[in-house]
Automatic annotation (TrEMBL):
It comes from the Bacteria. Keywords: Coiled coil, Cytoplasm, DNA damage, DNA excision, DNA repair, Excision nuclease, SOS response. This is UvrABC system protein C. InterPro entries: GIY-YIG_endonuc (IPR000305), GIY-YIG_endonuc_sf (IPR035901), GIY-YIG_UvrC_Cho (IPR047296), Hlx-hairpin-Hlx_DNA-bd_motif (IPR003583), RuvA_2-like (IPR010994), UVR_dom (IPR001943), UVR_dom_sf (IPR036876), UvrABC_protein_C (IPR050066).
Length: 689
């Protein structure tokens, strides 16, 4: 616990202007980001008598070890910078709304030759039109099933489409009239695109024109005695009306608006958002957050709007944004929304009529969501706290281990030896901190030496970062408002391995624990506890102890250690399999300099196997599109150096089977990548060390 007066800047050093400030802990990790109209007045609030502070604010300022700020010109700039820093640093004391699922959207891929209607989740893609979000994927499929009678747009995958075009036969939906089958030429690409545009118009709320057109066609067919066609049109009209009934009209003036309501208590808050388009509720979503700071309802609404519209692929800002409470001040937020939309946005609290009634419905949903969340999470919070306390008691720690790192070694009969490091903070996974290692110090299988190497490499990096941090702290940058410090990269992100754990867990028994402890001792680190969890009897081993610590089978502490160990094992296995797969799938062309994936595929298509390519002349290789003479000579030289595969032998006769083809060349191209987990471009999971 730090004394805030030890790092409090002098009031005269703090500018009396708009800006954004960051609190950092002793390891230079950002723990809180805030904005202010006047930095001097806002920061002064943090350095008053601790007894007057909100409990969570008190915890934050006593956890912090320094504060710094950045001056901006306007409150709108402060709002934008605050959001970008919260997204970049993920401070533990900031409001972060979360949910246990990604909401599905109804998407129309207008960027394809034959647009496809499908359910999509995750980041939005350019050229795709989205409708929603919906609470459940089945709600989207029910709606689409009704609309395909009238707008038979393609819904099949790229593989099904390609296969249908190759065979000249459409899929089942094409036979039953729920796809116009552009794959086999029943309609042209232009006609299919027009059909997709009509589908999008209907989903966007422009329904009247389509219904009037169908009713007119039905009447004309009946007058022309085309009763079967008239009956089909009648059924189409009924299907459209059923689809419309699923989204009842809530605002009679065909308003486009988002309604945001917050329900809160002392500890947590829930936000509910209704997306209204064309006067109809087109989607709904909800988030929850811990109130780890003393924040008003208006500030909670502001954070929700930042998360909703702040991402590059975030939701489009509608003409009206109706909220249960206005941010204070509301002007900068409204200006920011207007800038995001490119046109005026009305940000207000509805006072009367249908909009107020709908806001009360959204507010009621928020209260119910908060009550349900608290019911589900109450036992979870208690359980995690009890688990950490049990671990601290069993291992003789001074305090609960809020950060636990676990290491595991994986290999296959001594080949492709790798290790993993997973991180749990406050009993929960922190996947952005996961790391993975290739064993470099020796070849072959030796789990003890591997564990020693991994622990040594990880904590050597930690000591290096601490040394750099100390050098920085002795310089001019240590003053408040200075540079981010040595524990951050040039782009401001925290450096890898700069944050130490309170407990290191290794997957294994006494030998692995001893190796980990020896590695730390060699580095002079004596303030980090070490234990091991052996799989056979789930015994907890401590360094230098002849007997293990046996936790009760019903112990929450043992269950948490098992989860940490199993996650490390899973992560190590995934990486080991990735490396093994890549090694086994590699081909002789993988080491040819300048030969990329496209030209490898061209060689595969042209020759079909390594054997045929190896026997080809340089002139024949030059016939492949994109292959010049110099590249052809390099390919021929690389194949000549590579040992050819042994000829296949008929085990029954002993004869060499001359006609057996080798596996296609370049089989490793495009194989499994280096990363064991998928993530966003800036996701640090699976970084190799």
């Amino acid at each position: 616990m730090a004394d805030p007066s030890s790092y409090r800047p002098r009031p005269g050093d703090i500018p009396d202007s708009p800006g954004v400030y960051k609190f950092r802990d002793e390891h230079r990790r950002v723990i809180y980001v805030g904005k202010a109209k006047s930095l001097r007045q806002r920061l002064a609030n943090y350095f008053q008598d601790l007894a007057n502070l909100h409990p969570r604010t008190r915890t934050m300022v006593t956890t912090a070890a320094s504060v710094e700020w950045t001056v901006v010109s306007t409150e709108v700039e402060a709002l934008q910078l605050e959001y970008s820093w919260i997204k970049e640093f993920a401070p533990r004391f900031n409001v972060k709304y979360r949910d246990d699922k990604s909401y599905p959207y109804l998407a129309v891929t207008m960027n394809e030759e034959f647009p496809r209607v499908q359910v999509m989740r995750g980041r939005k893609k350019k050229g795709v039109r989205y409708f929603g979000p919906y609470a459940h994927a089945w709600a989207i499929r029910d709606t689409v099933d009704l609309l395909l009678r009238v707008f038979p747009v393609r819904t099949c995958s790229a593989g099904v489409l390609k296969n249908a075009a190759r065979t000249g036969r459409p899929c089942l939906l094409g036979y039953i009239g729920k796809c116009s089958a552009p794959c086999v030429g029943r309609i042209s690409a232009e006609e299919h695109r027009e059909l997709a545009e009509e589908f999008c118009d209907f989903m966007a709320g422009r329904t009247g024109a389509h219904l009037r057109r169908l009713e007119k066609e039905m009447t004309e067919a009946a007058e022309a005695l085309e009763y079967e066609r008239a009956a089909r049109l009648r059924d189409d009209i009924e299907a459209l009306r059923k689809a419309m009934e699923k989204n009842a009209v809530v605002l009679a003036d065909a308003t486009d608006a988002d309604l945001v309501a917050v329900a809160e208590d002392e500890l947590e808050a829930a936000v509910q958002i209704f997306h209204v388009r064309g006067g109809r509720v087109r989607g709904q979503r909800g988030w929850v957050t811990d109130k780890v700071e003393d924040v008003t309802t208006g500030a909670l609404v502001e954070h929700a709007l930042q998360q909703l519209y702040g991402e590059e692929s975030g939701d489009a800002v509608p003409r009206e944004v109706l909220v249960s409470a206005l941010p204070d001040p509301a002007g900068p937020v409204q200006q920011w929304l207007t800038g995001r939309r490119g046109a005026n946005v009305s940000l207000r609290v509805p006072q009367r009529g249908d909009k107020k009634a709908l806001m009360e419905t959204v507010q009621r949903n928020a209260r119910q969501a908060l009550a349900l969340h608290k019911t589900k999470r109450a036992s979870d919070l208690t359980t995690r706290s009890r688990a950490l306390e049990e671990i601290a008691e069993a291992l003789g720690l001074d305090s609960a281990p809020l950060r636990i790192e676990c290491y595991d070694v994986s290999h296959l009969q001594g080949d492709d030896v790798v290790a993993s490091m997973v991180v749990f903070e406050d009993g929960l996974q922190r996947k952005s901190e996961y790391r993975r290692f290739r064993i470099k110090g020796f070849a072959g299988q030796d789990d003890v030496r591997s564990m020693h190497e991994v622990i040594t490499r990880r904590f050597k990096r930690y000591l290096a970062e601490q040394e750099r941090s100390g050098e920085w702290a002795d310089g001019e940058g240590a003053r408040a408002g200075g540079s981010p410090g040595a524990l951050t990269e040039d782009d401001g992100r925290p450096r890898r391995f700069a944050y130490p754990p309170q407990l290191v867990v290794v997957d294994g028994g006494r030998p692995q624990v001893a190796a980990a402890r020896r590695a730390l001792d060699e580095l002079g680190i004596d303030d980090i506890a070490v234990c091991g969890l052996a799989k056979r009897l789930e015994e907890v081993w401590l360094p230098g102890e002849d007997d293990p610590v046996v936790l009760p089978r019903s112990s929450e502490g043992l269950y948490l250690l098992q989860r940490v160990r199993d996650e490390a094992h899973r992560f190590a296995i995934a990486y080991q399999r990735t490396r093994r797969s890549k090694r086994l799938r590699s081909g002789p062309l993988d080491d040819v300099p300048g030969l990329g994936e496209t030209r490898k595929q061209a060689l595969i298509k042209h020759f079909g196997s390594v054997k045929r390519l190896r026997s080809a002349t340089i002139d024949q290789i030059c016939e492949v599109p994109g292959i010049g003479r110099k590249t052809a000579e390099t390919i021929a030289a690389a194949l000549a150096q590579a040992a050819p595969a042994a000829p296949a032998v008929n085990t029954a006769t002993g004869e060499i089977m001359e006609d057996v083809e080798e596996a296609p060349l370049g089989a490793g191209a495009g194989g499994a990548g280096e990363s064991a987990t998928a993530g966003a471009p800036d996701d640090r999971r699976g970084q190799e060390t």
